[in-house]
Specification:
Structural class: mainly alpha
Shape: elongated
Oligomer: single chain
Helix content: 40-55%
Strand content: under 5%
Largest sheet: 2 strands, antiparallel
Order of helices and strands: EEEHHEH
Strand order of the largest sheet: 1-2
Number of helices: 3
Radius of gyration: 62 Å
Length: about 170
């Protein structure tokens, strides 16, 4: 009978005798006996690295004069910005201008309903608009325009009413 070959080392194992009983429960199974291993092969000793000649120091040159460092030319500081001025104040809308607008609207309405009252409201709207304009208030021109329109309408309608009354009385 031929022996068993070890897969790791290639050695021969001796088989167990045929008469031995199988291992009992809890015992280690049969392990084949291998012959002692051979020593690893000897390789030639490593060679020492080659020796190079020692390096020489670089030659010494005479000291050179180093020119002074060149700095960027000095410029004048940037010019100062002009002072920041507050923006021109926006005209403010006030009660005078709003009251003038309301009186101008009433002058136009009352020019058709009752012209003498429209004439009074138109004059008041002109006065309030002029005062608001002198104070540089917003909407002052609207009050002046509405007051003028109400005043002119009231005057025209008063003239029309007088002409109509004179024709009824038989004047013209």
């Amino acid at each position: 009978m031929e022996g068993i070959v070890c897969p790791r080392c290639g050695g021969q194992a001796t088989p167990a005798p045929a008469s031995s009983p199988p291992p009992a429960y809890g015992q280690a199974p049969y392990a084949p006996q291998y012959p002692p291993q051979q020593a690893p092969p000897q390789y030639p000793p490593q060679q020492a690295p080659p020796q190079y000649p020692p390096q020489q120091a670089p030659p010494r040159y005479p000291p050179q004069q180093v020119p002074p460092p060149v700095y960027a030319p000095q410029y004048a500081p940037p010019p100062q910005y002009p002072p920041v001025y507050a923006p021109y104040p926006q005209p403010q809308s006030s009660g005078m201008a709003i009251a003038g607008i309301i009186m101008g609207i009433l002058a136009i309405v009352f020019a058709f309903l009752f012209s003498p009252l429209g004439l009074i409201f138109g004059i008041i709207a002109l006065i309030l608009g002029a005062v608001a304009h002198s104070q540089r208030q917003q909407n002052a021109m609207a009050a002046i325009v509405l007051g003028l329109v109400g005043l002119i309408l009231s005057i025209l309608l008063i003239i029309v009413a007088l002409v109509f009354l004179s024709m009824l009385m038989g004047g013209f």
